[in-house]
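Hey,
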Amino acid sequence: MDSLNLKIIARIKSDFPEKFGIPRQSGLVPSLRSTIRFEPEFRNADALRGLEGFSHLWLIWIFSENIRDTWHPTVRPPRLGGNTRLGVFATRSSFRPNPIAMSCVKIEGIRLDAPDGPEIIVSGADLMDGTPILDIKPYLPYADSIPDAKGGFAEARRYDSLQVEIAPEIASQVPEGKLDALVEILRQDPRPHYQDDPERVYGLAFAGKNIKFKVADGTLTVIAVESA
């Protein structure tokens, strides 16, 4: 068997219409909420029976914005500044032979009686709005957690958190209930690792708004929140 046809079982509803600003890994922004909405064929409450006993899920999903016909054995991880090449299988790069990813998310709620079939509300997801999901599996602490596991180059090159400043009159323009998640996202420094121009104004599409900000000397300052 050289190929396999897979079905999309669900799509995620998130506050990210674009890739820029999405957390680099799942779980980095705990207050970020998303909703898993099933495709018509899989809108069956029986498929979620027993899920309420688990706290976390693995999502198997598709890098739908990076589907290509070719692949390369090496990639340039942003964590290393985009200048060092490593083997694709030593990274979590989206440019892979098969554009498949996995994320661990926390279950915040299960709605079996939602208008369009059952939904799962999760936190900590790192998926763009509309991302197709191939499978959902429960997280098993006794098997999935390995305390003494090594993190390779990713562990050695963690990103430093930024100080985030938002004036009250600007913060009031952020949609209700989204401010904490926005601050956590900005602390992670959404800029490409190789960019450090204190005069550059960046724009982050989030929750129906365009967040404008600058970064200088370890402080990220939000200068405007505009309608998208």
